[in-house]
Amino acid sequence: MQVFYRSWDISTSPFFEEPVLAPLVSNGRDAMPSIEYMMGLGSRELIENTYCAENTFEVQPLMLNSFERGIVDFLPSLNVCQKILQIGSHNMASSPHERFLFSDFTELDPSLCVYTLKLDEILWPKQTLYTRHPITGDVTAHTAPYPELPSFVLSASPWMAAARIWGTRMTDHPVSDIRWVLVGTIPPEWFDVAPTRPNITTADVQLAKSLPITCAAPSPSQRHKKQPQRYPSSDDEPRSPKQTRRAKKTQKQSMDPRSMAKAICPTSHAPRTRAERRRAASVH
């Protein structure tokens, strides 16, 4: 029987500590509204609840920095990523009420998903890793290229695990296509949560036509030329073109510091010295 290790059963030290709780996708990421839209959530539902159960996992303190920098990730299985890509592509090409809610798909329940450890080929320093058996507690050392690393399970949603991986060196994996689907469309300013559809499966989801399932990564020169597609919105209405107004030209006048002070502050006209105050009093 295969044993699945927990997310906190791997470290860079053979001495394991109490795990710390961390979010898979942090609140500062610009793609957070797109992730919400892809998952069928409502506006700011994830932004205002970053530490929800679907977005948090436990990790060893020594591994936390590597996860936060994206050098280390838990990669969902190929089959799971393909299903997330299929549903997510449909949602990205649909209006808010035509999307599917990620939690309605029982086949993507966190308890059914298995992960492998993804290490950045360039940034990871290839140091020794240690795993702790979740039942016996035995510690095993693993050296690069880590041929015997175990499989892992996470309590978080595989949607969040897939959405956080932004590596560009996985062009042959659907997780790379998920990234381009996310960055290729601008969500509306506000959208409600998708309607619940119980007992739905990925077989019920039609493949999106406007967003291809296999996306070729644009070249650096094309990324700035191609404008991202906007999400279709149910309340989109044609707007009359705005009339441009020309700003009136003003002549720039130069003033000395004293004159400028008088123009800015009316109290600058008041007498400053004792002699000036006496002279002003005698006049009045």
From TrEMBL:
Stretch list, region Disordered: 215-284
Ranges annotated as biased composition (Basic residues): 242-251, 271-284
Protein name: Uncharacterized protein
Organism per entry: Cylindrobasidium torrendii FP15055 ss-10
Lineage per the UniProt record: Eukaryota, Fungi, Dikarya, Basidiomycota, Agaricomycotina
